[in-house]
Amino acid sequence: MIRSRGLLLWLGVILVSAVLLGIQLWRGAPLDTRITALLPESASNALFQHTDQRLADAFEQRFLILVTGPGDVAATQELRRRLQESGVVARFDEQSPPRPDHLLAPYRYRLLPPTLAQGTPEDWIKRGLSRLFTPGVAGDLVHDPFGLLDAWLSARLASHVEWRDGGPVVTTPKATWRLISATLAASPYDMELQRRLNETLDRFTADHPDLTLLRSGLVFHAAAGARQAQREVTTIGVGSLLGVLLMLWLVFRRPALMATLLVPVASGLLFASAITWTLFGSLNLITLAFGASLIGISVDYALHLQCMRQLHPHRPLSALWPGLFLSLVSSLCAYLVLMAPPIPGLRQMATFTACGLFGAWLSVRLCLPCIPLRSHPATQAIALRLNSLRLGPHHRNAYVLMLLVLLAALLLAILAGHSRHDLRQLNSSPQALIDQQQRVQALLGQPAGFRYLVLQADAPETLLQRLETMDAELSRLHHQGHLSSYRHLAQVVPSRATQESNLQTVTQRYQSALPSVLKQAGLPSEQASRIWATLDKVPTLTPDIWLDDDAGETLRPLWFTLNGTPSAVILLGDLDNQGLAKVQALSRAPGTLYRDRVSALSSQLEQLSTSIIRWLALAMFVLGVAFLWRYRLNAWRVLLPPVGAVILTLGIFAALQIGLSLFHLLGLLLVLGIGLDAGIFSTEHPDDPAAWLAITLSCASSLLAFGLLAFSATPALHFLGTTCLIGLTATWCLVPFSRSSKSLAASHTEKTSHGHR
User: What is the rounded CA–CA span in Å between residue 66 and residue 604?
Assistant: First the structure.
């Protein structure tokens, strides 16, 4: 009666979970695809987080395409038309050069490039006469006799991009590249948008085989990752699924029984997805992938139950429940350590996994015993044959060899083991696409955007002055070849102090050079008064004036106010060691921070891994105490498969000089979970062929499901799969060493009988 009520209650919970999940899907609840969601959010990094988000918002939605080859002018126009018709583009950048002549004209007397600011009166005279008498040079005698505006635009707003034949081009000694730059109509992670964009470019390339295209933008890397994932799901995913189904069919030969093995996994996933999505408001794809793999451990519960029912149909299930419950508790302890670090992403993973394991366990405990089964003779024959693989006291040499191997692996792991948390190793983009991205950045002279300095000051004027001071050092590094490029707002909008100094210089040069220019040009001296009048009441250019104009759009992410404090960003290009040391020295100034986002995220991955290891060690210590309390001197038998497998895996990685990453560590968590199940059931039921058959099927199915990921081209999945391939194989090989010659139940009976005597 109690079991019937529990079953009905659990079925009601599953129904509610299905409704909750349906509501989330109907509302279009977001799926988070950021790996950075796994990383800690620190208040001290609020400025970095804000800056990173601004840069991401500015650059993630954009893409660039460079085209070169015969007939490139018409072909580029055709490609723009095709992209527009495909619906992937929200808007294209302007085809005409963004020279803000009209905007900057009133401020020209306050804008002086270094060449004019440091020029002598003779230099100014030569420049004024040259502009008057050079054919094709549009000179404005009254408002700009010395070409101040053109000089400023050439010095500060010049780029590698020119405008020719009605569009932007980049010219190199070997080729002329036509540039298409645009903003996406949807997220770069939108798979439908990726498909349409790639189809458009592929058809265009096929129609114009003589043209060369270079692509740059997050959308191309995201699309490459999506295509790779689809290929691997088709090959590795389908292959592993067919392998698992074939193995289970060979053992059980009953379709109905095989179907029951999916009940706990499906119910666990449904329960975990609904609860986690409701609690957190979104679901990270990494949570879904990793959590689903951990929930795959729950098939162990069903395997142990069904193997026992197949081989011992008349044995009461009460002998199985203690081990099954202890297996659940130990797995929860191992995985709930992810709740300890103050990281929303990891806590989401821990919640998902804990809910999934608990839901799967309840399904095995309440649902599966109610489903009738028929045994097959092949199952018992396979189980009895497997049961002969055991080691007793007379296999002393095998135990000695096992201890020596474990000791050697432990020494290797301690002495030669190392970690590698470089975020770049997780980049799954094809090398050809990475090369294209780097080539586009080099052709356009643009900083990559992940390395920058961020400055803060009490007032915008002070901040502009700080940027100018920093510019002098960065300019020196650039000219010495230590810094490829850099960009900041003060390159376009000088500080008020600099503008005032520039105006004084212009006034002095007008006094000393203007009369000579008019005289040598044969112009009436009366013109001087009209020219002098232009220097009266010259307005001051401010950051807001520039950034509010279309021409200042690209610099908007580099200037903002955070919590009432003006802040500015200096984007940095590639740095050599000397340049990096200098930039780091500059960042030690008050109100200045240096950020290499790739290095910072790599460091956070390392800290995250260290935190997980510490909490996992604590969890294993607690479990060790619990096992010692229950199993006394047999506790080592429970710990040998999981701990021994981890030691062997770490030793092999150390021998092969494979640095451990976060995803190797997540793979070890999976190995620990399956190893704990194997150790518990091999100790609870050492003489039972049903337990050994279930352990073997669990390790084999997990090897097929996760070990084959070792052949994935996606680095994170490859690391996870390699760890599972080695660790799960080691787990299965160590179980025969942990099986004793008598069962725990028999040992309790024997102790009881001795007590009665």
Answer: 36
